[in-house]
Each structure stands twice: as structure tokens, then as C-alpha cells.
Specification:
The structure is a homotrimer.
Chain A lengths: L7 E4 L4 H4 L9 H12 L3 E5 L7 H6 L27 H18 L5 E5 L15 H15 L2 H8 L26 H29 L4 E6 L2 H4 L3 H5 L4 E6 L1 H8 L5 H4 L10 H10 L7 E5 L17 H11 L4 E4 L27 H14 L11 E4 L2 H9 L8 H13 L5 E4 L10 E4 L9 H6 L4 E4 L27 E8 L6 E5 L2 E14 L4 E6 L4 E6 L2 E4 L1 E3 L1 H14 L11 E6 L2 E6 L5 E2 L7 E4 L3 E2 L3 E6 L6
Parallel strand pairs in A: 1-2, 2-3, 3-4, 4-5, 5-6, 6-7, 8-9, 8-10, 10-11, 11-17
Antiparallel strand pairs in A: 12-14, 13-14, 13-15, 14-18, 15-16, 16-17, 19-20, 20-24, 21-23, 22-24
Chain lengths: ~625, ~625, ~625
Amino acid sequence: MKALGLTYVRVGEFAWSRFEPAPGHYDFGWFDDALDILTAAGLKVVIGTPTATPPKWLVDRHPDMLAVDPQTGRTRGFGSRRHYDFSSEAYLEACRGIVTALADRYGQHPGVVGWQTDNELCCHDTTLSASPVARDAFRVWLKARYGDVATLNAAWGNVFWSMEYRSFDEIELPVGAVTETSPAHRMAWRRFSSDQVVRFHRAQLDILRPRSPGRFITHNFIPMNETGVDNHALAAGLDFASYDNYPLGRTDLRMARAPAEAFRPWMRTGHPDFAAFFFDQTRGLAPGAFWIMEQQPGPVNWAAHNPRPAPGMVRLWTLEAFAHGAAVVSYFRWRQAPFAQEQMHAGLLRPDSREAAAWPEVEAVVRDLAALDLDAVPRGRARVALVVDVEAQWLGEIERQGRSYDATEILLAWYRALRGLGLDVDFIAPDGDPADHALILAPSVAMPAEGLAERLSANGATVLFGPRSGAKTADVTLPEGLPPGPLRSALPIHVLSVETLRPGCEGEIRWNGRTYASGTWREELAVSDGAEILARYEDDTPALVRMGAVHYLATLTDDAFLSDLFEDLATAAGLAPMRLPESLRLCRRGDLVFALNYADMPQAAPVPEGAEFRLGGPVVGPRDLSVWRLPRNSD
Amino acid sequence: MKALGLTYVRVGEFAWSRFEPAPGHYDFGWFDDALDILTAAGLKVVIGTPTATPPKWLVDRHPDMLAVDPQTGRTRGFGSRRHYDFSSEAYLEACRGIVTALADRYGQHPGVVGWQTDNELCCHDTTLSASPVARDAFRVWLKARYGDVATLNAAWGNVFWSMEYRSFDEIELPVGAVTETSPAHRMAWRRFSSDQVVRFHRAQLDILRPRSPGRFITHNFIPMNETGVDNHALAAGLDFASYDNYPLGRTDLRMARAPAEAFRPWMRTGHPDFAAFFFDQTRGLAPGAFWIMEQQPGPVNWAAHNPRPAPGMVRLWTLEAFAHGAAVVSYFRWRQAPFAQEQMHAGLLRPDSREAAAWPEVEAVVRDLAALDLDAVPRGRARVALVVDVEAQWLGEIERQGRSYDATEILLAWYRALRGLGLDVDFIAPDGDPADHALILAPSVAMPAEGLAERLSANGATVLFGPRSGAKTADVTLPEGLPPGPLRSALPIHVLSVETLRPGCEGEIRWNGRTYASGTWREELAVSDGAEILARYEDDTPALVRMGAVHYLATLTDDAFLSDLFEDLATAAGLAPMRLPESLRLCRRGDLVFALNYADMPQAAPVPEGAEFRLGGPVVGPRDLSVWRLPRNSD
Amino acid sequence: MKALGLTYVRVGEFAWSRFEPAPGHYDFGWFDDALDILTAAGLKVVIGTPTATPPKWLVDRHPDMLAVDPQTGRTRGFGSRRHYDFSSEAYLEACRGIVTALADRYGQHPGVVGWQTDNELCCHDTTLSASPVARDAFRVWLKARYGDVATLNAAWGNVFWSMEYRSFDEIELPVGAVTETSPAHRMAWRRFSSDQVVRFHRAQLDILRPRSPGRFITHNFIPMNETGVDNHALAAGLDFASYDNYPLGRTDLRMARAPAEAFRPWMRTGHPDFAAFFFDQTRGLAPGAFWIMEQQPGPVNWAAHNPRPAPGMVRLWTLEAFAHGAAVVSYFRWRQAPFAQEQMHAGLLRPDSREAAAWPEVEAVVRDLAALDLDAVPRGRARVALVVDVEAQWLGEIERQGRSYDATEILLAWYRALRGLGLDVDFIAPDGDPADHALILAPSVAMPAEGLAERLSANGATVLFGPRSGAKTADVTLPEGLPPGPLRSALPIHVLSVETLRPGCEGEIRWNGRTYASGTWREELAVSDGAEILARYEDDTPALVRMGAVHYLATLTDDAFLSDLFEDLATAAGLAPMRLPESLRLCRRGDLVFALNYADMPQAAPVPEGAEFRLGGPVVGPRDLSVWRLPRNSD
């Protein structure tokens, strides 16, 4: 490891059965040896707490620590990982035990520089559980939130369909009913479930902080569009957030239904916007730079198909992460394990301990990093921000008004359009800090706070809200006076009705003399005086409205419209958008500009005059990158 | 409501938790007030019994009132609606309580003109339950039907696969077995389940009739092809049947797999034959005119996608219902509720109590109805009847000999062909009254009574049976002497064998010098002397046979054949079929002819000379209608 | 039966409820009568033990005899057949009882010539069960195999994800976990489950053998690709294996997703290679000729669609079975039953006891067989062998590295390519006898024994291993020194990595100046000196390697490559391949050559000079066959 130029090693994250082979009997000798060897070699150690893999003896002692699948009602048992319920007090207590033992023993170990909590919390659809312990905890949570059951009944509209409760103890989890349950009920369950994860996670921070002073604590996050957890809340208290970057597997899964010809160009590279999409989101979770805790170094084992990366991609992905602000990129795994579930998951070493295909690419990365000296170049804030709202995502899953509505696909489409214009993007939560951003785009903020539009635009930013913004109150009712509720103070519109359209049955949106597709979700707007109608539907009713700096787009559209509109808004906001081919992406870190070429042929980069190259040159090689320093006085 | 011109208001259908907020504690004051206000305003009140939504306290008292999903074995719990088992005696007793309380209090209220029992019985796939109470009731039902278990064993053919029982207590529900269960067993379960619904429903009639003299009782039916309940039996004892008309949602669901270009023309109008298909079926369930208890006034919330109706369609759907014989069309809902499951379901008022899009169309309906004076024009009987057989539907679901066989699609295809010929259609059950009908078409009567063909043709009607008619005995065995069993007395044929073909692999049927597709279900016929072979398969064997007025079609075919054949049969029966474009439909109510244009452009109607227009003129506007009075001496 | 020319009758296979109508009360009188009638008529009787259909009273006595569905956790109940768990001791004891009673009574009956054990063991996905009795038996099996739990932990790599056990009693079945369970765990469960079936079956042999001397014992096998049972192990102790041949149903299911135009040619004939594929596999299970215990004589009831066979096909299928070495072909069923689950399954007689469509074809078979005198012509061994490895099949299902990888489709593709070259094929297990074979093809031997390659090639055979051969150790770990593990002693290669590719995203393999598709599964090879690289990938790395007679193909390919490669290898091995159209197949039995024409038009057969025709002539009629005797000195 040292010879290759690695700096950090993460260890221990699944080793509970070795740390505590029998209840209360700890065995740390082998781990002491490992840490000593790593430390002696000058490597810095990150310890992962092993709470993602409780041993069998613990499950047998506390069978109610297992979660229950909400779809089937079946208990999710031992035999893989993540077999626990976030609401189990017994399991939480056991976690406190093992984490305390580790923190006490290694918290001040000279080789230990930081901690990873658990591992990929909520992976494998484990956020929601229909267990009795989850139900009981839900009732307690509801009582704490609503106080008395009459308030809950009123807030949820339980008079509808005689859903009224006489006490909190009558309330079940919203699963297994005859037809759809109340959206307020389901939203509460989503909030509760997210809170339970945060609470579970916080318990580890509370143990580690005092016992391991001067060390960082991080977590390797699964994107919140997959877990349904509020990652912003989950990240609170961490020093920085981490991400596990598997571009090929994610591309295979996300493009599962794409035709072969659309998928093929990215089969061995990953789609040019998918890794960055999650880099930028991870960076937004916590202050400080983010880490890649696991970087795919070759074919993996868990996607539907698992191709080999194209030559050069391991280096390109790594440097792309740094371009987006990563402080560290760590590969998973060091050596391919010859046994168990991940034996087909490549490492930097093969199972026979020889160098695997990615080895020379990592050697090249070490050289590149020396040339770039990135520690001296902080990423800085982007001029464009995308507002990502976990409640909008929950709402999209709860209220299936149009089955083709997919909050993540919408967020990704907006991001792709921005990246195709060469713009850097920060992600912020609706209550995040809008300073520094000249253009703020909110695909959907479902339940905006009062004054949100004013706050976002206060510093002069151009602001655009997408459809379904201000659609609901916190308890998923229609806001008084119709949507967009609190946004109306900035923009005098009313959403009179909504229609959803099947793919292939789109209508039109007309803007600047051009016609685009408008589909999936379309809102009928009434616009009061003072607002300007910028675009209209095929029936001439308003589809895009502006008042001052605040815009509202009432419909989902095609990608061409997003590109044209965002180009227009960005230009007006004083930015310099440019049109990039799909396979070429730009990214700025401080005064360095990275041009990343995902294509299998060279491409010329849009290099400004006076640029000073740190890597590569004006023509970027296939699956290669160039990095230049901006000349003075350039944006 | 009064100002708009409405006459009737339905109330109370989901209000159990307000009527009886705690066990045995009734609170009717608020409902008294509501009825008084409505009555004072001159509105007529229909009360819905609230038995579709038992409150949580009742479920907690009688957990065994919940049904069990036959596919998964999971109990279907509280949280939405229809969470009850038709076989639960405890629940039936509770229903008797609440219905009696309502009937006692409001049965003779001056403003109350009628009752709706429960709401959409069996919606959300609730006919079948795999609960212990259902199993116990099934055993009792079997004992009553078969007397002793040896009779049942013989009738079902239980010697096959050692399925013989030694007592009724050994018999389980036909669910969860290793592979397919006996078709006789499943048919018995379907009959039992249908009977349980009828029994449950009848209990409310028995309470309401004596307590509410002079008031009507109706029910808003879900089509029996969805519920699998014998709606003819369920309607017995009602004054008339009602239907809830949601053309867009039904079109979205029924055309779920249609390509976008086939779906798009009807996305905002509904398919021109889908609403009428259910109007005509509902009219056939009970004597008297039918009601539309719920008419969609805008986008709804429950289909996969929920578009806005095209302008004019709310008026057109409403008047189409009247054309088909409706006495009343009631809109659902009055005001869009801002909370709970249906908050995205449009009403005549928006959630902010302003007039929603449908309002002016309802105003127009009020004017149209004044012009038409339909109370003086009874619908009358159609000259063409379609025989609809719930047992054929059950058989098609139980015996999956060809997976693409779909009894409802077949019935709909025959109906569409007739409507495309401008013919009015009545639906009758196999034991219904064939008088008045000149042409009687039975797509499939699975288990015909002796003499059915003779009875249907007794008054001179031309009769056509489709394939799979006479296919089985009542216990789903092959009839003695092969199919079509009892039909053979009218038509000397034997069905020697059956084959089913995959879509896209059709054979041919040749008739009148033309060739059509024959697929999905094809029977090999032996034809005895005296019968005439009218059409043949590609191998020259008989496919369509006639003896006297009775015809037998041995195969499913394409739509072109149905149109050509029905045109021929109708002409021979003395009717005057004409070819209509798919988007134009005719409908006669008494001496009024309605021409309904579903297209987005004007169409000329086939107006006879001397017609006297009541609405519109010879060219029907887009999404509009014309109504004329027939001249004397015209058909 | 006798008049038609039948010889054998199978009876009793589902008659438990008649043999033992109540616990311990036997009734054999009716069966005595049946056997006496059959024997008196000169028919030979095969008795099926009725253990596939335990009666309800037995299930009620031993509810834990029911299996549990591993996917859903739901008990699979009474109501059809095969409702039992192979691990149930109570059920095994009951089976011993009924089989002993039958064997004692009929074992030496003069009319009884043999026995069929149970019926289609493991049909309807019954091999695997997640019941408590299966779990307990699994623990016992594991203890017997591994001795102590530390050995098991090490062998399975349970240190991964803290899956270590402290005792065998902690081990669950690998079902219902949060994400994928250990492949070693699942492989052990597959082996255990297969062993349980063998053990269950063996108990019947142990009873029948001593009680029925001189009679044969057989079983009608379901192909092991469907059951996941090691049919070679299951067949041990049988006199010969039997197969139930339903070409139309199998073609419908296997081509379920094929476009209509690809399916249509075989809709009424079955695919020309599907029946033979299973004939040749069945012949390989046990010494002696095989039987067709059930031959489809018309449309059946269980496929998605059930067409009628094309005229001539019942005869052609029958004679094709004889061509492949069958000793007997028995039709199922004699008379179509008018009741229960199989009432739409054709017989030789219709339900009204008249001759059904297949009757004259069976009459023709009787004449054909008289002309051919096949008893004097043993099939003999084929010069080509396909190695079929149940562990490779299990591995393909357990390790889903590429979702489109399908071990059966691969085996079938190799078989089709060989049959299209006019070659006869034997199937052997990896430990089977390679003598007589000049060309031995192993699509995948997952866990080869030491020296396998040397043993297969010892007699001078050309040997080809396909990709994923030598991929794993017995406990599903990567072999020491990388794959192909023990094959490396014959072929100095290392599989450095594997990639899997989505359909439609294939790469290339280049061989002999031509380019073919390489997809789904591709291995990166390192080749040491001494081995010859015969074909390469698009990046010029090795894809097909040879050392001496042993070849290794590192990738799955298209059909064209298989045909070209096999033609080349066969020619080099001294065989005489020829290219046949897809609808024409050749088959040799002794010195007789059968040419079978599946097309609907005549085809010329490749008749060598001097051939002496026994049936037909040089031009084979549509759905007909010709049979000639080879001239001396010809191959």
C-alpha cells in the first residue's frame, strides 16, 4: 500500500464476529496487530464501526431486532448484512456496547485518524420496517409530534373514510391496507423512519466524540433518493460526508430499461453525469471536503451485468472526484476476496495478490496528484445551486398522481442540463445557505417555509421553481388558497388544477418562438397582475411565469427546453454557459479547470486564452483529462 | 347547489366514525343539521350507509372481521377502506347496528328520498378472502349445496390427484396450493364468494325497506368483470342500479398496454365505447332507469396518469348517460377535498370553493335537459341484446387454457362492433327476458340451462353463440356428449377439441369469400346433418354453423369479422345497421336520437330525412352532440 | 388398447385416496380387478407409486409434512399435488407404508412388469423448502458434511460480513435475508436439497426391489435444469430413466418471450431440438434404453397457450424418441378425463370415448415399428459428448454475476449447434465415462475434479471447455491460483478477471479471419508458454486457447461461432459434420439413420450412396421421416 502511494486505510467495518466472538467476550489482539502494522508503515487508519453486521448470536438473543419487510410482512433475517431494525432498543444498546469498546480501545491510538460510522446506512431498502418495535416507536413519535390525537386527526384529515383515531395506540403503520392509505399517514411514517436512522446514527457520534478527540467522524452515504432518508439531517455532526463511487453499477441500474444503443456508450465508463451528480450532492451534506470512501477499481458483482471499466477510467473517475472537491479517494477493495458474496468484486490486487488491472492507473493518479497539489486549491462555491428537497422526493413516492413522475429523474435532468452548459453546481437543502449563488434552481420544494422565495433571491440570485413546488402543507394537504402556498408571496399565481400525462402523450410548451414537449406533470395556472407570462401551453394558458427574479415553471418538459431555458437564465445571471457535447464535462476547483473526456476519441476542450496547463493540453485524449489554471480576470 | 340547478345530494357514505365515534355512542346532531339545511334548500337527499369504512375501534374489537389476501395470505388491515370480510358475522352484526340506527332516525325524514347501500361493494379486489371465517363459511355453504361429501367428491371429480374428502371440515379454500387447484373447487369458491356479498348486502335492504317506506334503495355498482360478483343477483331487491362513471381513469387502466398513439386520441375523452358499455350493463341490472351516482368532473387521482378532460366532455358524458337511459347524473365530488387520499380528485368546486372547470358545462347540461324534457321519454328496449354471463367470466379466469383469453375483452369487442354499426344494445343475463330483441348475441354462455337456445330464439330472434358456449356443466366438467352440451338440442354440433393460440400466431376464418383472423380460442367442430356451415377455418373445417335462427361461432376472431358478421345478421333480422366512424356514436332514447361526437373536429351525423332537432344540427361539433326526434314511420 | 397395438399400461400413480381411503384402511379390490382385466388382455402393467398425491387426512395428521415456499415463506397447502416436504420424516414414514402395501400385494403379480416411483419428482418447483423440518435436516446434513462448525466457517469464508456461526444450530436456511446470502451457504442448501430428494426416492427402491423381483423400476424425470436436482444421482439404482415428452408445452414456455414470427414455425411441431435435447439427456441418466412414459397426443392444458399438434407430429415425435434410443413410448393419456385439472388435456380417446385425432397416427406408429424392428437395433454410443454439470447450473443460479447468463440456454445452444451439424450427442456427467467419444464438449464444469481434462482426453478425444469452467472450489470460493483451478494442469492459463455484458452490448471474438459476437460472460486470460492462442477478443487478448487436445473458450458467443468452431473440431476429430437446415434433423440408432422433417414442406435428406430405405425415401415429406440403413463402410 505504501509503495503504491496510498495514505489511508479503512478497516474493521464488518468485523463484529471477530471483535466479539461471543456475547461480552472481546478479542482485539488480532486488530491491535493490524493497526500496529499499518501505523508502523506510515498509513493512516480509519476504523469503521461494525454495526452493519451484527453476529448471529446477537440476533438469536434479540429476535425482535430484525426488521419486517413492509411489502410482504416477512421478517428480514440473518445471512447477509443490515439485518436490524432502526427502532430496536435492544439492538441500539448492543451497538452502544461494541462502539464503546472500540472507541475506548482505539480512540486515541496514534495511527487512528478517524472513524466511519456503520456502513452505507439504509442500503438494501432498510429504512422502512413494519415490525412491532417500529410500530410502537411510531406511536411514541406521533405523540411527541402531535401532542393529542385530535390534533393528529385534524391535521391528517382523518374524517375522510372514517380514519379517525381515539388514541395514539390505535394507529398502525401505513402498510398492508386494502387500498392506499392516507398520504399524511405515509408522510409521517417517512419522517419518523428517517428520524429513527438519524437517532440510531447519532448514538455512535455521542460515543465516539468524547473518546476519540482530534479524530474525524464520517459516514459513507447511500444517496438519499435510494434510502429515503434525509441525508442532510443524517450528516449533522459529521466532519465531512463520504460517498462510495461505483459508476458502472449505478449506470447499469439507472439505465436498466434504456435501449442497448443508448446504454452501450457508457457501459464501460459510466454515464458522464452520474458520478458527478452524487459527488456534488455529497459535498453539500456537510461542511469540509468530502471523501470517496470506496472507488470501484474494476468490475463489481452486484449490478445486473458487470463490465470491465474502459482503460483509463479508474484514473479518470478518481481525478473527477478530486475535481468536484474530494479530499481523499479510497479504493474498494485492496485485494479481491476469494470467498463469500463479493468474491467477484475487483480489487487493486487480484485474489492471488498480484497487481490487478487498475494498479498502474492508481500509480498514475499518484503522479497526477503530485502535479496538481490540490490541497492548496479548495473547491469553493459554485455560482449555480440546485435545491434538493427530501420531502419532495417523499411526496413523489407517496402521491402517485402520475406514475411516470420520478423526483430523482427530474433532479438529474436539471443537473444534466446545467452540466451540459459547462456550469458547476452546488446542491443545497431548502433551508440551506443561498449566498454565493447567482442562479438557484428548485425542481420541486414540496412544502416550502414561509418566505423561501424571498430568502433565496435576497442576494440578487435568479430563482426558478419547478412544478409541484409549494404543492402541500407539512401534513400533505393542499395549502390554504391553493398551491404554491407560501411561494405566492413572491409570485402571484394559483395552481388551479393538475394533470398528469402518460409518456408519449405529451402536450406542448411554447417559449421564445419555439415549441417543446410538456408532459408527465402539468399545472393549470391563474396569474395575477404583476407577473409576466414567459411561456404558454398549446392552449395559450401560462406555463412559465416570472415576477422580479423569481420564476415558476408549471410543467415538466423535455431536455431541450431545460437546456435553452437554463442557458438563458444563466446568461441573464451573469454566468457564461457554453454548450458541451454529452461526453465532455468541465469542472472547476478553485482556479483549476478540469476537462474530462468520457468519449473513446480525442476532443478539443474549450480552453480560454492564457490558460496554463497542469495536466494534458487543449485536446483531451480519450478517457483522459486536461487541467488548466485559469488566466487572471477570467471567470 | 341549488343555484347551479342540482336536485339530489348523496351524503354520509363514509361517516361511520362521526355517526358512532365510540362503540354504541351515536352522534347524529351534525347530520341532522346537514339534512335540515339541504332539505330547506329544496334538495333531495340520498343517504349512503357507511359500511364501507368501519372505524378503527370496531376493527380492534373484532380483528377477525379483516379479510385475508388470497394471493399472499396477508391480512388486509385498517388504514384505507373496505377493510372487512363479507363472511364475518361480527362485522355483519355491527353493520346491522349502524344501518338500523340510521334507518330509524332518517327513514322517514321528509328530505330523504332514497338510500345507497354501502359504497362500490367489492372495489379494490375485496370479493375473495382467504380468512378463517371465510373458510368456515365456505364449508357451511358447501354442505348446504351438496348435502354430503360423497356427492361433492363425485361432482368435482376429486378422485383425480387423490383430492377426495372425508368430510366438509377437510375442505380448505383453493388458495396457496402447490399448483393449480380443481376448477370445480375454484368455481364453488367464486359462487360462494359472490353469494356472501349478496347476503351481506341483502341484510341492509331488510333493515331499510320497512323503516323507510316510499324511499328508493340503490347501490353504486362496480362492474362485475372487476369484482367477479354476480351483479344481477346483487341487484335483486333494489329499485334501480347506479354506476360511477370515470371515463378517463377507466380508459387509462384498460388501455394500460396500448401504444401511445392508440391511447392518445381518447386520453382526454375516454374511449367512445367504454362509458356506454357500462351504462348499458348497469341499465340491465334492475328494472327502472339507472343513475350515475358519481360522474367525474375533472382529473381524478387513482389512474396511472390523470389527464384533464377535454373541454366539453363533462357535458358530453353527462348527456350520453341520459341518452342511454339514466334518470339522474350526480357529480362526484361537489368540492375538491384539500386533504386525505382524494385531495387530487377534482370537484365541481375547487378546494378554495371557487367554481372549477366543469361548472359551466354543468350549467349547460341544466339548459340542455330543460330543452330535452327526458322524463317524458323512456329509453325503451333495444332490438339487439348481448348476453352477459358471470359464470363465463369466472370460467375464463379459472381455466386458463389460453392466457390471452379475456372474457371482458371479448364482450367489449362484440359491443364495440355493434356500436360501430349504430345499433343500440341491451345486456341480459342468460336467464333474462329475450322479448323485444330481434338479434341476440351471446359471446359465451358457459353452462347454459337446458333449452336456452330455443328460449332465446322463441320469439323469432336471430341468435348467435360464441365459442366456449356450453363448454361446461355447473361443476366445471365437460358435458356428457361433449360441448356445447344443452345447446346441441338446437344445433347439432360437437366440439371435439379446443386449441388456444398465442397473439400474433392466428389462423384464418373464411366467410363470404373473405378471410379474417381466427385466434386465441379455436374449437374443432363436428357438424351433423341439418346444420349449415357458413364459415370455415384455413383447413376447411367448420368455424361458423347455423341451424334455423341459431348460430354457433367456434372461434374468436378479429374485429373486422365481427363487424361484417353482425352487420349481416342485423340486416337479416330486419334492423338497419350503418357504419360509423370510431369517434361518432348514436344512441336512441324513445324517439330521440343522440349523436355523440368524441372527435376534436366536426362530423356529419347520419340524420334521416324529416328529423326534428332538439339539440345541435346535422353537423355535430367537436366533443358535442346533436339530438333529433325521429320522423314518424322511421326506425 | 390391445386392438390399437399398445403393450404397456401405467396405472395407480395418483390413487392414494382410493388405495387408503382412511388411515390404515386399505381398499385394493378395485385395483385387483383393473390389473386382472389388463393382464387378461395381454397388456403389461407398470404401477406408479402414489406418493405425489397424499390424501387430505394425511396432511391433517401431519401438517408439518407441507413444504414452505422459500420466496414467500408461505406454506404450500393441499388442493393439487406434490404437497409434501422431502425432509418430513412423518411423510417419509407414510410413504413407506403405502409403497410397502402396494409392493407386498402386487410385487409378484404376473401382469406387473415394473414400477414407476412417485411421479415427476420435484415438478412445480418443489425441490426447495423453507420449512422448519427442512432447516433442522439441513443442520444435520451440514454437521455430517463439515464435522465441526469452525471448518464450515472457514470453508464458507464466514468471516466476511460477520457471518460466523458458533454451532450448527445457529445456521438458518439461506432465505429471507436482507440482501444476498453467502454463495457457499446457498450451494450447500442446493446440494442438501438434492440429496434429500435422492434419499426420499431411494426409500422406495429399498422397498420395491426385494418385494418385486424381476421387475424394473423407473421414474419419469423432470429435466434437472427445472428441478435443480442432480438427476444422475437420483437415477442411481433405477433400471432405466423415463421422460414425459410434451414438445408443444415446452416450446411455448421456453420461447415465451420470443417474437411471434420466431415462435410460429414451431407452434404446432415443437422446436426441432427441444424434444431431442431431453431424450439424449434422459438416455444418459441410467444404463439401458430410456422410456417415454408420457407422450403428448394432442393439445394439453398447462402451457400459456395450447395449440393442436400439426397432423403427423404425434407419429413423428414418437418415432423420434425411438430414433434417440427409446425402448417404449407410452401416451398420456388414454382417455381425456372430463373432470378436474386436466380435463382439457387430450388423450388417445376423447372424453366421449371416441377415437381422438392422434389415434390413426398411433396406428401408423405400430406399423412403422413393425417395419423397423428396433429391438434388434441398439442405439449405441455417440461419437460426440456434451458434459452436463448440475453444479454449473447451481452456480449459474446462485452467483448472478450476469443476469443474462443461463446455464441451460448455453447447454442448449451448444447442443443445437451440434445437431445442426448432423451429429449425434450423448450427455455425460463430469465423472461419466468418456470412452467412445471422439469429441467432448463441456460448456461449463464449475468445480472440476483434479485431472478432469486429462481423463476426458485420455482416449484421444478432442476436448473443449467453455467459460466458467474450473471457476470455483466445492464451497464456491475462487480456486487457489485463480480459475480454471484444476484444469490448469492440462492448460496453462489463468483467468484474471471476468466481465458480464448486457444483451445487445456484445464485443467481438476473432477466429480464422472471421469476427463473431462475444457477450454475456467474458474472461480475461493470461496464457503461459506452450499453449496456442486460437482466437482473440477485439482488443487482441486471448479468447480461445489450445494445448494438445484440450481447448478452453473464455467467452460466450453467438451461434455462428459455435457452428463454425464445432464443425472444425469435429472434422479434426475424424467425424463428418454436415450443415442441416434448422427444420431437418438426423439421428442414428445402430446402423439406422432417421431423417426427421419438422417443416411443412418436403426436404431432401443427405442420403449416402447405397442407403437402404426402411421408411420413406430420399425426399422426406412434411412432418414425416425417412429411415435408411447405412451401407457398409460408411460412418
